[in-house]
Amino acid sequence: MNSPQFFVLSNGFEKNAMHAKSRTKLDPIAVIRGNIVDTPIQYEVCEGRLEKDLIGTTHAGIYLVSDNLIRVLKENTVSGWGVFDIELYFKKGLLSGYSGFFVRGRCGELDNTRCKKKVQPALSEKTQPYTVMTGYYFDEETWDHSDIFIPDNTRVIITTGRVRECLLSSNISNISLTPVEDVERFGLEVT
Asked: In this model, does residue 189 exceed pLDDT 80?
């Protein structure tokens, strides 16, 4: 039996796409895992002007999602996610049609020993080539088989290939879905 293919879901950083920041202090790990006490959480657009299906925030892994994206996930019976109430302010008004996104699905910790080294070319004539580690790997025995899930102790959102296909076929905007084996990871010791 072949293992399923997995993808990291992240901000697509499309040109002029909105990006938001929270108006209140929050615990990003609690928010992304759905451990939210006080809602709605207030956000304000801090850059960009174009409404997209996914709005990144100043907290890595926390996203605001459109009613359209929610509809696509529901229609395709995607498991492992939920939404929370937000207020999104843009210019002088409240922007409707968005919710905060959290992840219910889980797997165990990432296995950094399975990462691969990748040498990147120098960024300029004044710098040297550098090495990064690639891949988000986990023990599939620890995965709860949700379509969308998060490894323990991270804010990395992983999806199945089925989720990738339904999001791409629905033309969901401002979303990136990178195969887990291709993701470059910085901050890991390269040995």
From this structure: no
CB 156 within 8 A of CB 174: no
Specify the residue for token string 């959102």.
157
- Per-residue confidence band for 187, with pLDDT thresholds at 50, 70 and 90: low
91 vs 74, which has greater pLDDT? 74
Cis status, amide bond into 28, omega within 30 of 0: no
Does residue 66 form part of some domain?
yes
The residue whose two tokens read 């210019």 is: 91
Domain that holds residue 43: 10-185
What is the per-residue burial (b if ≥16 Cβ within 10 Å, else e) of 44-55?
A: ebeebeebbbbb
- Is 119 a domain residue? yes
Whether 2 shows a pLDDT value over 90: the answer reads no
Nearest Cα neighbor of 54 from 171, 184, 165 is 171
At 146, give phi and psi (nearest 5°).
Answer: -70, 155
Domains of the chain: total: 1
More confident residue, 133 or 72: 72
Q: Tell me, what's the pLDDT at 4?
A: 62
Task: Please indicate, yes or no, if residue 99 is contained in any of the structural domains.
Answer: yes
Please check whether residue 118 is in contact with residue 134, taking contact to mean a CB–CB distance below 8 angstroms.
Answer: yes
119 contacts 131 by C-beta, under 8 angstroms: yes
